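A reminder before we start the practical. When you read a complex entry, don't treat the lines as separate problems. The point of joint prediction is that each chain is placed relative to the others, so the output describes one connected object in space. Small molecules and nucleic acid strands, if listed, are placed in the same frame. In the example below there are four entries. Take a minute to note the order of the lines before looking further.
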Amino acid sequence: MDQMTKTGLWVDAVQDIIAAGRRMDRFGWVPATAGNISRRLPDGRIAITRSGGHKGFLAPDGVIEVGMDGRAVQPGDRPSAETLLHCQLYAHDPAIGAVLHGHSVASTVLSMAAGDAITLSDYEVQKVFAGQTTHDASVRVPVFDNDQDIARLCTVVAPELGRMPAGYVIRGHGVYVWGATMDVALARLEGLEFLLACELEKRKLGR
Amino acid sequence: MDQMTKTGLWVDAVQDIIAAGRRMDRFGWVPATAGNISRRLPDGRIAITRSGGHKGFLAPDGVIEVGMDGRAVQPGDRPSAETLLHCQLYAHDPAIGAVLHGHSVASTVLSMAAGDAITLSDYEVQKVFAGQTTHDASVRVPVFDNDQDIARLCTVVAPELGRMPAGYVIRGHGVYVWGATMDVALARLEGLEFLLACELEKRKLGR
Amino acid sequence: MDQMTKTGLWVDAVQDIIAAGRRMDRFGWVPATAGNISRRLPDGRIAITRSGGHKGFLAPDGVIEVGMDGRAVQPGDRPSAETLLHCQLYAHDPAIGAVLHGHSVASTVLSMAAGDAITLSDYEVQKVFAGQTTHDASVRVPVFDNDQDIARLCTVVAPELGRMPAGYVIRGHGVYVWGATMDVALARLEGLEFLLACELEKRKLGR
Amino acid sequence: MDQMTKTGLWVDAVQDIIAAGRRMDRFGWVPATAGNISRRLPDGRIAITRSGGHKGFLAPDGVIEVGMDGRAVQPGDRPSAETLLHCQLYAHDPAIGAVLHGHSVASTVLSMAAGDAITLSDYEVQKVFAGQTTHDASVRVPVFDNDQDIARLCTVVAPELGRMPAGYVIRGHGVYVWGATMDVALARLEGLEFLLACELEKRKLGR
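Here is the predicted structure of the whole assembly.
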């Protein structure tokens, strides 16, 4: 692969990440400096948001390259600590091309009230998740306890890999979703957040 | 009708659909790839959103032509499964020129808590619905059980046709509204969603 | 006053009304074709939104001139039925230059749960209302029963004129606020709607 | 420092303040004429929003210079009464470069239901506040009673200075947050408001 192609792939990935950040900000899912966004390029490189900075106002230099070990390729670049959770997904499934991590009020509040999962049932929008063809089913969204030790958190997530069609939630923290492309990942994020917003309203109705 | 006129009518319909999608996205009523939007042209053709894709970011090729049987006119185009619900409305009433189907948190949650209808009473905004001239009345919004078999769902909707001034709701799924023009359909959608949002708040107040 | 000056004053008023409509739409306070907006010009003419049409997407011809009797100056122009409520305010106080009527979820729901008034106390934002200099006071917002006979509704509003620093609410319908200029009226509208949103949240907390 | 440099610093500060006002308006945190925004320049001057006017639509002349005593440098300029609360923070800590005061529904309602503090625990977003490195901790946000006598309010705030990593709340009024730069202050504001929104939802769930 020549340098021009490599550059073009990188620019495309950065544009995807910047646009995803703006979209997430529009819904209030990347408050302060929260959230992170990544894409795997066709050549295998991983582009991810730099640690810190607002994800709704990303500039191209807000995106850096990391290896599958979660470390920055360029010395001096500082990836988010949570980069390992992205890499874990890319390592698990070669079909994954984009990972999104956002913080919403609904996911934060519901996860703090939940046990080890939030179960979504009877919603048409469940069909946006991989392998779901009907509303007449239940989708289990695992809730993992938050942990500042991300390597340790990875070991808790690992056993569920391949069994989380709607992504997962870290308690008091936020959601992780993914897809083959950024568009698919964003659609699943919107779908999951829509359903969590519905669940939150249902609980306020006492149901 | 010459080809230039036919093309102009099509372009107008596509612009109406794209603008309606943006407006619905602004309110969060087309999360992920949810929702669908159609218009009947003066020459009788039906333009409707293609299956899949985000309705807030439609491009002209995201709109396809279907016949009254809900099938794509161009081989290879894939309409939404729910196209039949649009066609049913167009077949029922020749005055209908636009149909909107959106997913909101309020319609989803209320319909899952409701019986076979949601009744709206004493709201000024009820006057936006066909034939309503006062707030001092009740408008019945039927709630139909969701069904992945859309042809079967049509048979459940059929007996209510002509008696649904505010549209209808599919349980855990979303609303259907219509009007002579896209502007009228959008106004009724905004009116219905506003009133469902009010109903949801009322129930949280325990009323 | 020469024709050029008269035209300039009219254009200014129309621009104020169009901008106010966009702002109200941004908050969801003019759903469907709801709401109306007026301004009194320095030469005494009254410009008000035409009946029907979406107030968030006004064009200059969506604004018409009415007399103090609420009737259109140009034959064929159709003002909103509620124009009389605007004229009543202009007739009551020559210092009033703009009147806004919006529909919000909070004002609709609270007014349907209220008696003959909503009382706002201990909020800093109360200071936006005429004559209020401290949070340490109560502001009474009258709630009038809705009535499709606007002339009759005017007679119910009349005794309260001059005693409504924060405007008033029509039950299940919406708010009326006013000010010397459009900016003042908009600030009071934002202040009142902010406080009604707070009241609605308070009641959901059971307070 | 030459005049050109002084002018450039002022222009930068004004741009920061205008952009912050737009951002706060986007979330509904500066309703009506509420809120105020300031920045300390590298040369020690303090730029702050003029009293009155909407903070979401600031023009350069909506920002004035004040001294550390809270008084306008230019005779005739009228700073907000709350300017003293900004100056108190600048006097307390030379590292503070920006102060934000906003009004949100969540901060207003929660502070009216709270005692002398709101405590935030177990949220990942707490890490946006100075000195917080884990979610597994509690952050105390003091709530001070509102007072129209701002000098007296300063004496109530004073004992807590240096012990408020997340800012503070004035009851029924709004939040104060700060940071070395406007970006840091805005991130903390978004973080605090996000967490107050979570707390409000939690309480509606009865937790």
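Discuss with your neighbour: Chain D has one domain: 3-204. What might explain this?
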